[in-house]
Amino acid sequence: MTGYSKLNVITRLTGGFLVLLIITTSVSVYAIVKLNEFNKASTHMLDMGDRMTGYKERLSNALLSQVLYEKKYVISTDNTLYNHFLATSEDFVRYLDEAISMADTPVVKEMLANIKNQHIEYKTLFEEEARHLRLHKTYRTGWYKAEKEKTVENMLEELNNLELYVEEDIKNRIKGLTEAGARALKTAVAMAIFSLIFGIILAAGITRGITKPLAIMKRKTREISRGIFESSLNLSSPPEIGELARAFNLMCDRLGEMDRMKSDFFSLMAHELRTPLSSIKAGITLLEKNEGCLEEQRKERVLAILSEECNRLIGLVNSLLDLSKMEAGMVSFDLAPGTMRPLIEKAIAEIEPLASVKKISVEFNTTGQSPFVIMDNERILQVLRNLLGNAIKFTPEGGRITVSSRPAEGGLEVFVTDSGSGISEEDCAVIFDKYKQATTEVHARIRGTGLGLAIAKHVVDAHGGRIWVESKQEKGSTFAFFLPA
Ligand code: ADP
């Protein structure tokens, strides 16, 4: 019955929505994280650019101030100017160190280190010149001037290069960021499209998993309305619908069974009513046509047949009423403790005339002390009459019937054994169902309704007992029942 999934509807829906929620959350988280990264990276880059430009400005100013003080000192040898040079030189070095520690690319670091070396060279040149001046020595003024100007120019050029490089670097980085942003956007869009398609497929799968078995059931219901009761619903479905399908199959089985019973009932009725009614009609016609001229003996025989057929009809109607009342639970049982022996003896005495006509011997064996059993005497007598009646019916002339009873655990067992036709294994399995009769040739020749054993089973079941048959074809049968004490 069940197929791929044992997941119930609630689990499927919750699971599906959870998967969709996880996917959409992942897409959103991915987009947020990427956006944040870009934001941080661009802020950092712009900040870095601003700071580098600021340092470049400060370094240029500090350098130009140094040049100014240094030039004035060379002219005036005023110590205050020399000290101003040292102070601005220290500022220059401090700015330079700060810029080096902040720099995040090896090229910028190298450029700044270059400027630092040039500055050391420049400062050394000036200090040497200042020493000469303090000692009032003659020195190569022009050479110092030219060398200092060269280093200062180099430094200024390197600072300009630095500024250009930083600008270019920022541009490149923004380009890189834009490309990465476009890639991230593509990924996010792809993820969103995937989750949308996946969501649609998932939703369609879940819906189909629920609606498909329902559609099959709808189709099956239509078949039932056309009288096709086969229980063939084999669905791959959630457990709740699986349960429904199982109940549906059960209903189909029951409907099919009822349908078969209805057909059995009609065929039985057609046969069992038509045969006696035809006999009765034929008998009446015979009496009418030959009124007065029919000999007494023949008239009596016809009347006997009419009475027998009427009795058969009354018996059939009574049995049908009895069984339907029992099935509807409308029969109350008059239960009281009693012994089985007198009932068996009564049933045997009643059947004796029939048995002697067929030259069948009927024996009664009883073993052990017969315990009291709780029973409705009339109803149990009805069961005994049916079992003995069948035994006589299905045992050929000269046969033997033995009735025996023995105490069993918790009650009493009664056996009716005959040396009759016997019953096949398949028939044994169904003869307690109503309208069911054995199908062999011997049985087909003997008239019956298939109601007696069904009634007997109802009666014994109502007593809390059990009824069964043991038989082999051509070897006779033993019908037995157990009643609790
Ligand atoms: P009926 O005898 O009226 O057909 P029952 O319900 O009493 O109805 O019996 C059902 C069927 O069981 C009979 O038609 C017969 O085929 C089979 N059956 C019952 N008792 C015997 C028996 N002692 N020997 C052989 N067949 C039997």
Characteristic key phrases:
single chain; 485 residues; alpha+beta; five-stranded mixed beta sheet; 7 strands; rod-shaped; binds adenosine-5'-diphosphate
SSE topology sketch:
Layout: H1 9-76, H2 79-102, H3 106-134, H4 141-225, H5 239-289, H6 296-327, E1 336-338, H7 341-357, E2 361-366, E3 373-375, H8 377-393, E4 400-408, E5 411-418, H9 425-428, H10 441-445, H11 452-462, E6 466-471, E7 477-484
Parallel strand pairs: 2-4
Antiparallel strand pairs: 1-3, 4-5, 5-7, 6-7
Adenosine-5'-diphosphate is lined by residues 386, 390-391, 394, 418, 420-421, 423, 431, 437-438, 443, 448-454, 477.
Question: What would your notes on this structure say?
Answer:
This protein has 485 residues and is an alpha+beta fold. It contains 11 helices and 7 strands. The strands form 2 sheets. Strands 2-4-5-7-6 form a 5-stranded mixed β-sheet. Strands 1-3 form a two-stranded antiparallel ribbon. Helix 1 runs antiparallel to helix 2 and helix 3 packs antiparallel against helix 4. The radius of gyration is 58 Å and the shape is rod-shaped. 21% of the residues are buried. The model has no long low-confidence stretch (mean pLDDT 90). Adenosine-5'-diphosphate (ADP) binds next to helix 8 and helix 11.
